[in-house]
Amino acid sequence: MDQHASARADRPEIVVEDLMIPSDTAGISLHLRNKRPAALKTFSAERTILMMHGATYSSESLFDTPLGGASFMDYLAGHGYDVFALDVRGYGQSTRPPEMDAPPEQSEPLVRTGAGVRDLASAVAHILKQRRIARLNLVAMSWGGSVAGAYTAGNNDKVVKLALVAPLWLLQGPAPIDAGGRLGGYRNVPVLDFRTRWLSAAPEAARSSLIPAGGFERWANISLATDPLGSAQTPAIMRAVNGPILDIREYWAAGKRLYDAGDIRVPVLLVHAEWDQDVPIASAQNFFLSLTHAPYRRWVEIGEGTHMVLLEKNRLQAFDAINQFLGEDYS
Fold it and tell me: Rounded mean pLDDT of 160-179?
């Protein structure tokens, strides 16, 4: 039997809403996608999730690309959660800074981590008000782990639990995502060329089976569709802001903490995959050991996965680990 068949068969009807909410900046609106069971009428902090994307691709691209019949958002909603996914300014369907309409060399790197934290705060405030709850869970990946970690460190009272997939932390030298040289406001990402870098992290013998059949094309099409201006070009590109890259360069790759993980005082789950070259295992270990005030913490290491494990053959191991962590009660 297809390993995903039982999950599909038991999945309840899912409601999907796309919302545009105000940021703290005039003229900048933020895209929130919500998926939840149609039968869910009573909302609680413990069953509410906000998801946060990484440095390049939107939340829809990372969390709502359907593979094997379901996306990560579908999986969580199917397990009874009220799930929101945020695009910070410059990503996905959120407003792009006006500087992105000019050549990149005409502006400094856009949307630094501080702006991401502010946009996450705006999304949290909106959800808490709409659902009439005091806290929620955060699930974040890569640079989004920096954003969610920094937000939680300053707002523990608004977070139930924090689940991070390969969060950025201290690195031994430049990050693979940083091509070096002067950074303009944004970069043009040739999405269809990313397959080579994605697969290069895995041993050659494992590459052909790493991404589910047709999965790369589905993911790439969703990613490109978030930027109609870029996808209309030949070859197709997607514009991605460079503020996160500058922060990686000036903080994590320079051995400087952008925030203090010891200030996080909620339960934390760290999910990491063995072939991750963007966040090496030594970086993950340093982060885990820095969580000195979390009530409890857990590290799940997934074999045969890269930085993009949430879109790979072993993604259900990550999904299940996060679902178990969010659903347990050790209070």
Answer: 95
